[in-house]
Amino acid sequence: MAYRGVFIEWxxxxxxxxxxxxxxxxxxxxxxxxxxxxxxxxEATIILLGLGFRIRWNYEETEQVRDIVRxxxxxxxxxxxxxxxxx
Length: 87
Hints:
Elements: E1 5-12, E2 29-36, E3 41-48, E4 51-58, H1 63-79
Antiparallel strand pairs: 1-4, 2-3, 3-4
């Protein structure tokens, strides 16, 4: 599983208004920068009038990340033992 690298996510908040929802979340303006040192990542979110993006750079694989990856692998193995036989 590759952890390091850059990930980009598109954010679109307008479609929620065309369906029934329990609540609506809309950001006229949102600018957020997060340095998540525990997980070895730097993230920025920019939204203007309900359209925006989130970009994350995972610069380091920390011990916490390795623990989570091991947990995911254990869960996958428990759910489907045949899926991990080729690894």
